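RECORD TYPE: protein structure
NAME: siroheme decarboxylase
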Amino acid sequence: MPLDLADKKLLNRLQIGLPLVKRPWDSFEDELQLQYEDIRKRLERLQQEGIIRRIGGVFNPSALGYRGCLYAMEVDESRFAHTAAVVNRFKGVTHNYRRRNRLNMWFTLSSRFEEDRTAILSEIGEAAGHTGIYAFPTKRVFKLRVFLNMEEQGADGERSGSASKPLLHPATDVNWEHRDWELIRELQGSLPLSELPFDEISARIGCEPEEVLERLQRLHSAGALKRIAAVLMHRQAGYTANGLFVAEVPEEVLEKAGTRLAGHTEVSHCYERQAYPEWPYNLYAMIHGTDERIVRSVAEEFALKEGIGKYELLFSTAELKKTSFTI
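PREDICTED:
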């Protein structure tokens, strides 16, 4: 079923996030001029159609004591399927993609303990035939916010309009209590689509609704909970092309270049990462578009304006795994 304007407005608003209040849908009714029952039915349909992947908590693993890193490796085709299965088996792997490049498998891994990470990478390396695994830790974040603009997405591939500002919080050392972890686990699933969703969650974990809201505010203030929002399926939402842009940028201009790249509405993630002699790229960005032409034009125009001579654009050709962070 084609999306109407109300669907698109609802998807945009829900990507920004739900307010952490007792009746969160009331603000949606006022802003979108939709009644709650209409909102609920639309969301149920959009989930059934696969446009909404999930509605729930979006967390910052580092603020919860986890360390994440991006990895890439060159996997021979004869071992690719087996290696992907091994990589995907680990709960700490949330994303795994086949990309059009010599380094053809890219995955993220989060863990609380270094010995766990070492053991997991050893098993993955063995499955891949002991190929080298590149680690690309984040050195600096310029943008970390996925927002697929559904309203201004032109049918002809026209670029979307205003950029969504990233909501970034520094990682903090907080001693989270058992009840916090219970709440986090609940929000890593699907939020109830009732008028009082946090009341339902409070009943599940055995506490008062006011305590749930207080704990959510604390999680958010500490940077552990980024937002409670809708996560969309890119392709089903019309964004059928996504490319990993990697560029070699001189250190003295990297901050300004990264900030300008992060300002593009098509860019959801933008980082400074570890470079290697044989892989000299230090600026990374995920660029999304309704087709590859859009993604290429963003990369090419940026490289031209910044005077970047060495860069690559790695298109995703298969989504091998994509899940939300879970504890």
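COMMENT: Residues 64-149+235-322 form a domain with the Alpha-Beta Plaits fold (CATH 3.30.70.3460).
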